[in-house]
Design goal:
By secondary structure, the chain is an alpha+beta fold. The chain is built from 7 helices and 14 strands. Strands 8-14-13-12-11-10-9 form a 7-stranded antiparallel β-sheet, with helices on one face.
Length: 375
C-alpha cells in the first residue's frame, strides 16, 4: 500500500470564480490566489487548511480574486467522496470554468509500493461524471530555481545551467540588473560580447576611447562547454565610473577573464587594479525568429556603501543601451554556416567565428541543419 492514503488528489481548479470555496470534507485543502499570482511558490506558501463541516459559503472572495484552486483528497480506493464531488458540481454551477486534474506524488511511495496502480486518467475514477467536460493535458518541463530566476528546459537539456561560483560566496553580492525583450538574434549578442573592436566606437560615451581604436587580442582556450577568453584592455574612466572602478585616474585597465557557454550564455569577468571585480552574466533565449529574452546579472565584491545598486544598474544600463541600439539595427537572421560566404569577418571576429563553428557542429551532431531565411 501507499505510505500515505492522501497520495492521490483529485483537484478542482476554479478560474474566473465569483466566490472562494471552503472544503466541506475533512482533510481537504483550499488554495486561494490573488490575480495572476498562480505559481509553485504561492501554491506552497499560501495554503489554508479547512475544517470539517465548514460551509461552502463561509470563505468569501475579495473583489480582486480571479483564481481559486481546490485540491480534494480521494480515498485509498481511488473513489472521490460524495462531498468532494458536490464541491465540484457547485463549482460548475457558480463559476465560469472548472478544471479537474489528477495529481499523484511519487515521493510519497516507497520502492515496492503501489504507485503504478493509482489512476492517471478520469476513466479510472468511477464517481467522476465528465458530461460537458473537454479533455486536456498539461506538459511538464524540467525547471530549476537559480540566481533569482526559474530556468526551464523545453526538451531534455544537453548540459547543466552554467555555474556562477560567486553566487552566495562571502564577500560578493548579486544584482539582478534587467530582464528585457530585444529585437535581435542571440548569436549577435553573444559575438558582440567578445568583440573588442567595437568598444572605441559604440561605447565612446562611457568607457570607450575613440583615440585608441585598435582592439586588444583575446587568448582563447576552447572547452567542452564553449571557450575561455582572456585579455587586458585600457579603458576611459570618467567621473561617473570612479565608484564603479574604484579609482579616480582618467584611464584604468581591465583584466577580463570571460567565458562563453553554448549556445547563448556568457560570463564577463572584469577585474580592476583597485581589486574590484565586476562580473556580468548574460543569458539570451530566442523567443521568435527575430526576438530574444535577455537576462543580466551582476556580481560585485564591494559593498552597497562603496557603490550603490542604483549606480551599478545605471552605469551598465548606459552601456547596454549602446549595444542594444547597434544590435537591433542588424539582421536577426545571423548565419551560422560561414561556408555560405554571406557575412565577412576580420581578425577581431575570431570569438564569433568559433561560436559559429561550434554551433554548426552541435546542430549536425543532433541531425539538424541551419535554415536561413533565404532557403
Amino acid at each position: 500500500m501507499c505510505r500515505s492514503p492522501e497520495a492521490l488528489a483529485l483537484g478542482a481548479a476554479v478560474i474566473s470564480c465569483r466566490r472562494r470555496y471552503h472544503c466541506p470534507a475533512p482533510g481537504a485543502f483550499a488554495f486561494p490566489f490573488a490575480p495572476r499570482s498562480l505559481g509553485f511558490h504561492h501554491f506552497c506558501e499560501r495554503r489554508l487548511r479547512c475544517r470539517e463541516n465548514h460551509s461552502l459559503r463561509e470563505f468569501v472572495a475579495s473583489p480582486s480574486l480571479e483564481v481559486a484552486v481546490l485540491i480534494l483528497r480521494a480515498r485509498a480506493d481511488h473513489a472521490p467522496r460524495r462531498a468532494e464531488m458536490a464541491l465540484v458540481e457547485a463549482s460548475r454551477a457558480q463559476c465560469d470554468i472548472t478544471v479537474l486534474s489528477i495529481f499523484v506524488n511519487p515521493a510519497q511511495f516507497g520502492p515496492n509500493e503501489d504507485l503504478t496502480t493509482y489512476p492517471r486518467d478520469f476513466a479510472r475514477l468511477p464517481d467522476v461524471r465528465l458530461s460537458g467536460y473537454r479533455a486536456a493535458k498539461a506538459r511538464s518541463f524540467r525547471a530549476q530555481a537559480r540566481y533569482g530566476y526559474v530556468w526551464v528546459a523545453l526538451d531534455e537539456p544537453l548540459s547543466d545551467i552554467p555555474a556562477i561560483p560567486e553566487d552566495g560566496m562571502t564577500g560578493y553580492r548579486r544584482i539582478n540588473q534587467f530582464y528585457d525583450k530585444w529585437n535581435t538574434a542571440a548569436l549577435r549578442l553573444m559575438e558582440n560580447s567578445f568583440d573588442n573592436a567595437h568598444f572605441a566606437f559604440v561605447h565612446k560615451g562611457t568607457f570607450g576611447d575613440i583615440n585608441q581604436p585598435k582592439p586588444e587580442k583575446y587568448e582563447i582556450v576552447e572547452t567542452e562547454f564553449g571557450f575561455d577568453a582572456e585579455t587586458i584592455i585600457t579603458v576611459r574612466n570618467p567621473p561617473g565610473a570612479y565608484r564603479i572602478t574604484g579609482t579616480t585616474e582618467p584611464t584604468t585597465r581591465r583584466h577580463q577573464r570571460n567565458k562563453w557557454f553554448m549556445p547563448f550564455c556568457r560570463r564577463l569577468d572584469m577585474e580592476y587594479p583597485s581589486g574590484i571585480r565586476h562580473i556580468i552574466f548574460n543569458c539570451a533565449t530566442p523567443i521568435s525568429d527575430g526576438q530574444i529574452q535577455v537576462v543580466q546579472l551582476l556580481f560585485r565584491n564591494d559593498t552597497e556603501a562603496e557603490c550603490s545598486t542604483r549606480e551599478l544598474i545605471d552605469w551598465d544600463a548606459a552601456i547596454i543601451a549602446d549595444d542594444r541600439d547597434m544590435l537591433e539595427s542588424t539582421d536577426p537572421d545571423a548565419i551560422v554556416d560561414m561556408g555560405r560566404k554571406i557575412e565577412m569577418h576580420m581578425p577581431s571576429d575570431r570569438p564569433g567565428m568559433i561560436m559559429r563553428k561550434r554551433l554548426l557542429d552541435l546542430l549536425r551532431q543532433h541531425g539538424e541543419e541551419e535554415l536561413p531565411r533565404s532557403v
